[in-house]
Design a protein that fits this description.
0% strand; 67 residues
Amino acid sequence: MTDTATQTTTSNGKTALSDDLKTHFGGDAPIVDKAKGFAKARPWTSAAFLGVAAIAVLNSLRGKQLS
């Protein structure tokens, strides 16, 4: 029999991001500190998230009259 405390799980390409999200955003730290830790660990992924958010904001402002 194996001890469940000594078992380690390995991530494949599909679950690595979700495992990192659980690692960085779990716990009792403030969300800002969690986001900074995630951005330092995965800079390209966080840049992609920011790019998608920027596109969403620009699309929501498109067609609005600023008068």
